[in-house]
Amino acid sequence: MTTCNHSRWEPSHDYRPLETGTERQAWRVAALTGATMLVEVIAGYAFNSMALLADGWHMASHMLAIGLTALAYLLARRYVDDPRFAFGTWKVEVLAGFASAILLWVVIALLAAESLWRLWRPQAIAFDLALGVALIGLLVNLASAWLLRDRSAHGHRHAHGHAGHDHDHPAPLARDLNRHAAFVHVLADALTSVAAIIALLGGLLFGWNWLDPLMGLIGALIIALWAKGLLVETAKVLLDREMDSPLVTRVRYLLAQEPDTELADLHLWRVGRAHYACIVSVVTHGSCSADRYKARLAGLDELVHVTVEVNRCAENE
Q1: Where are the CATH 1.20.1510.10 domain residues in the chain?
Q2: Per-residue pLDDT for 112 more than 80?
């Protein structure tokens, strides 16, 4: 016969997204990217440059993605007190990053298809005029990347307590996947701008018209590598694939310090950039309570929600 002592640890954890510098910068970058996109698309059609046109439409998709980034921060703050979100609204940001990664793949497909067509059907290009617009686009992309750079700061306020003591401190540093998605989009824009400049210079100086669509293909390949990494990283969080986290090993080690205890089940998943929830089920031949096991895990600041189930052998009751 087995009896069970079940307890839930509910520290005073407050996850409240605030309007951050990253959110404000995302809105600014979206506006700046949109204005530059219009110039590049119009110039691309006017000067018949595939590299410039691809850069412009590529920038258009990124304007939407960066706008999505900013919108995710806004929604995360707006619904932070909604009880339907069991562990807060952080994954709204991750979902926006995932959507941005998908959008990148759409851009890659369109860019590659159009470049292949231009290789098959080369066209005359106004290289000198297109080159000036491409240089402006590159400067805008570099400015946008600077605005969205990782400042190793966070825009969330956290307060949580462990084993009877409370403390307020900044959240552990971890990658903001939403900001990182916007940053990757801007870097991809910068890459296509560089490719456009190289292609236009090659055509202007040496008459290499084929270089224009070739650079479009090379840019699509490099962007694909970035998009794959972003897609995998965000999908991992959304699917709660966190059991390979080093934190799992630390939890197992700490629980193993209790005598006559066997870990029967463990589930751990992320509920913040560097914060995790955990469900633990142990079988013990001793008399340890759930509070004892929770105290063992109290030193792990990353754990903000813990549920401990103790299955005690009947002879020890």
Answers
A1: 16-238
A2: yes
Of the candidates 149, 152, 186, 156, the residue with the CA atom closest to the CA atom of residue 171? 156
- Whether the pTM exceeds 0.85: the reply is no
Angstrom distance (rounded) from CA 228 to CA 247: 25
Q: Which pLDDT belongs to residue 115? A: 79
Is the confidence at residue 232, as pLDDT, over 70? yes
Nearest alpha-carbon partner for 162 in 15, 14, 295: 295
- The 10 Å Cβ neighbour count of residue 50 is 26
Distance CA 191, CA 138 (A): 8
CB 206 within 8 A of CB 68: no
Give the closest residue to 62 by CA, choosing from 152, 174, 155, 137: 137
**Beta-carbon count within 10 A of 126 CB:** 16
Q: Which CATH number fits domain 16-238: 1.10.238.10, 2.40.30.10, 1.20.1510.10, 1.10.10.10?
A: 1.20.1510.10
Task: Put the strands of the sheet holding 276-284 in their side by side order.
Answer: 2-9, 303-313, 276-284, 261-270
The pLDDT of residue 280: 92
CATH architecture of 243-316: 2-Layer Sandwich (3.30)
**For residue range 17-57, what is the model confidence (pLDDT) as tens digits?**
444 666 777 788 888 878 888 887 788 778 776 666 666 77
Between residues 276 and 179, the one the model is more confident about: 276
- In which residue ranges of the chain is CATH 3.30.70.1350 found? 243-316
